[in-house]
Write a structure and sequence with these properties.
By secondary structure, this protein is an alpha/beta fold. It folds into three domains: about 290 residues, Alpha-Beta Barrel (TIM Barrel); about 200 residues, Rossmann fold (3-Layer(aba) Sandwich), CATH 3.40.50; about 60 residues, Golgi alpha-mannosidase II (Immunoglobulin-like). About 30% of the residues lie in helices and about 20% in strands. The protein has 17 helices and 31 strands. Strands 7-6-5-2-1-11-10-9-8 form a nine-stranded parallel sheet, with helices on one face. Strands 14-13-15-16-23-22-21-18-19 form a nine-stranded mixed sheet, sandwiched between helices. Strand 15, helix 15 and strand 16 form a beta-alpha-beta unit. The structure holds alpha-D-galactopyranose. The site of alpha-D-galactopyranose has 11 residues, from loops. The site of alpha-D-galactopyranose (GLA) has 11 residues, from loops.
Length: about 675
């Protein structure tokens, strides 16, 4: 039989209508990856007893269990999985059943080594890792769907199955394959997207370096370690790669849907910066968007990183629908350099931080710590030391809290009035190829503007460039190098309707194909900004340029990037003071009726971002979610006739907030001034 994949569509297929709300458990979901196949049968009884003690109500089963079920080509032993599902079901624990396609079995990798992905330098990843498969491989697809079908036939109608979990972190390890089959699939995708090879040549500007293509066979994925790919080729390959993986997800989802009514999702890795694939186009294809989030131990603001990721999940979930924290850790992961444990209180505070921002549960990797295998030192809900551990005590405490918060399930985070636009294509573009400054990181600006709002307890959604922006009074666009015309139009409309738009350096400089928009930077926004740049002045390592203006609250020095800006209707609110730009505008503001359009031509240090955000908040009337001492994070979820105020104290001392209500975690009535204990959390039904 000749294997053949359907071509990857060049436009992401339209998502289904917003799916109905998903009910994974009676209250909030609580649990983690459960891998009973790693343990003798007698351990399972203890597992389930301890799960009940901790209040676990949902576990992800079978994520890496392809090889332990399909033990040889077409030979399947379901016995352990049958037992595990019955045991869990009998104990009232729901199952998030995974299709185990992230880890193909050894027999398949041995029989078909060609399914492994090929890196840009031609090296084929050997078996032994995970996601070691090429998204364009028809052979892999055939074996994967065959097993998914068998799994769905067997358990698709089982009452324990509350959710399907497709693969695992799709793209983690195999997001870009450069093999021959991928090259063919890429060409087919290009033909659908652009229509003809002439159109590809025009979109990519292949006249440069005489790279014009005459035949499709000449088009290759961006290969090689040296040199710089054409930006148009690079961006289209990134887009194709995202679409190819999404096509695989959709193929599995289609098989599951033929045998089961249970909702389908896959775990994304949503964070700050350019993501491995364009998750914003994926999320609408999940019944509930699911995220894996791990704090970085060396990130001094890890709570803000966590908040950013929650705000981005909500921003891509559509209608602020609840999403699900599918994985996090109770302590050190094992893939960072120095895998520090969590501080006391962090398991609860971090988990409830996700719930505050819209997650309808808190799940972990993994239930019981493994003794063997690559992840033997990864933390777990039940650590190696067992129940006599601090982690276990906090896991039980968290279970109690989630139970007390059951009524929060299904409510949504209140509508934010501020938004930050995060766009993966723009992030990929900024960080690759021969750019005026090659050290700029997309996540830096995203995090920085979010931090300033977060510290002021001003809620903001982190939205994709495709989002409808009508609800927002303030829209911030950090370093969005590449912008498509439809998104640019939505952004330009913000000040026209009385809102405030803030655009930072290197935004709107290139069109959707990565081609520079001529006539003065930033081509997509210069009219609305009333300011334009004719030259970039990237700074050398250690070089600093002073800027000053009332809105900053004092002079500051900028690093990395400056620009020669000209006014054309805007006023300069901040000016460069040193360097050859001395006296030139650094930050500009154009009044547009009741609205305003700001341009920030340099990466501002935190103090200056704080000053500017203070001014923007005044100008747009943005209020904090609650008046509190510094160090407290405040977020509100709302239901039909009730609201819940989450107060998380990240400081090492007790802090106060002006708030009132019934604390669901302690059962007491509190307010109008509430003390939130050091490192603690309060959730008030207001
Ligand atoms: C990812 C994976 C898990 C596990 C964890 C470890 O999130 O999905 O299987 O490897 O990392 O942190």
């Amino acid at each position: 039989m000749e294997d053949r994949l359907d071509a990857v569509p060049a436009r992401v297929p339209a998502p289904p209508e917003a799916p109905p709300p998903v009910r994974l458990a009676d209250g909030l979901a609580y649990g983690g990856d459960y891998n009973p196949e790693q343990w003798p049968r007698e351990v399972w009884d203890e597992d389930v007893a301890l799960m009940r003690e901790a209040g676990v109500n949902l576990v992800t089963l079978g994520v890496f269990a392809w090889g332990t079920v399909e033990t040889a080509d077409g030979v399947r032993d379901w016995s352990w999985m049958d037992d595990a599902i019955e045991l869990l079901h009998g104990s009232g624990i729901g199952v998030d059943l995974a299709t185990p396609t992230a880890a193909p079995p050894q027999w398949l990798l041995t029989a078909h080594p060609e399914i492994a992905p090929v890196l840009a330098d031609g090296y084929r990843e050997p078996a032994g890792g995970r996601n070691a498969w090429c998204p364009a491989s028809p052979v892999y697809r055939r074996f994967a769907l065959r097993h998914v079908e068998a799994l769905a036939e067997r358990y698709g109608r089982h009452p324990a199955v509350r959710l399907w979990h497709v693969g695992n972190e799709l793209g983690g390890g195999n997001a870009r394959c450069h093999c021959e089959r991928s090259a063919e699939a890429f060409r087919e995708w290009l033909e659908r997207r652009h229509g003809s090879l002439d159109a590809v040549n025009a979109a990519w500007g292949t006249a440069q370096w005489g790279h014009r293509y005459d035949r499709w066979e000449e088009v290759m994925p961006p290969r090689g370690r040296h040199g710089a790919p054409n930006p148009g080729l690079f961006l289209d390959y990134e887009r194709y790669s995202s679409d190819a993986l999404l096509a695989h997800y959709l193929a599995e989802k289609e098989v599951l849907g033929r045998h089961s009514d249970a909702p389908v999702t896959t775990n994304l890795m949503v964070g700050a910066g350019a993501q491995v694939v364009d998750y914003a186009s994926w999320a609408p294809h999940t019944a509930v968007a699911a995220n894996d989030h791990y704090t970085s131990v060396d990130d001094p603001l890890r709570e803000q990183d966590l908040a950013f990721s929650g705000d981005r999940m909500r921003g891509m979930s559509g209608d602020r629908r609840p999403w699900l924290l599918m994985e996090s850790s109770t302590g050190g992961p094992s893939w960072q350099q120095r895998n520090r444990a969590k501080d006391p209180g962090e398991i609860v505070r971090h988990s409830l931080g996700h719930v505050a921002r819209g997650s309808d549960g808190a799940m972990f990797f993994q239930w019981r710590a493994s003794t063997a295998g690559a992840e033997q030192f990864h933390s777990a809900m039940l650590p190696h030391s067992g129940t006599r551990s601090r982690v276990w005590r906090e896991v039980v405490e968290l279970g109690r809290h989630l139970h007390a918060l059951a009524e929060v399930r299904g409510t949504t985070v209140e509508q934010a009035r501020a938004a930050i636009v995060a766009d993966d294509v723009a992030g990929w573009a900024l960080q690759h190829g021969l750019k005026p400054h090659r050290g700029l990181r997309y996540g830096r600006e995203l995090r920085e503007w979010h931090r300033a709002l977060w510290e002021r307890r001003i809620l903001c959604d982190v939205v994709p460039s495709t989002a409808d922006l009508d609800e927002y009074d303030l829209v911030i666009v950090p370093t969005m190098l590449v912008v498509d015309e439809a998104a640019a139009e939505r952004l330009r409309a913000v000040p026209e309707r009385g809102g405030t738009l803030l655009v930072t350096y290197l935004s709107g400089v290139c069109d959707v194909n990565g081609q520079v928009i001529t006539g003065g930077f930033p081509g997509a926004f210069r009219d609305v900004l009333g300011a334009w740049t004719d030259e970039f002045y990237p700074l050398q390592q250690g070089e600093r340029v002073r800027i000053d203006g009332d809105v900053l609250g004092g002079p500051v020095a900028v690093e990395d990037w400056t620009e020669r800006v000209h006014l054309e209707g805007a006023e300069a609110t901040v000016r460069y003071e040193s360097s050859s730009l001395g006296g030139g505008p650094a930050v500009t503001r154009r009044a547009v009726g009741d609205g305003a359009a700001w341009y920030v031509s340099a990466p501002l240090p935190s103090d200056a971002v704080d000053g500017l955000v203070r001014r923007l908040a005044e100008e747009t009337g943005l209020e904090p979610t609650a008046e509190t001492d510094p160090g407290i994070e405040a977020v509100r979820r709302v239901g039909d006739d009730r609201s819940y105020l989450f107060l998380l104290n990240h400081a090492g001392t007790d802090r106060k907030a002006e708030a009132e209500g019934h604390d669901l975690l302690t059962g007491e009535r509190v307010g109008p001034t509430v003390t939130v204990p050091a490192g603690g959390v309060r959730v008030l039904r207001e």
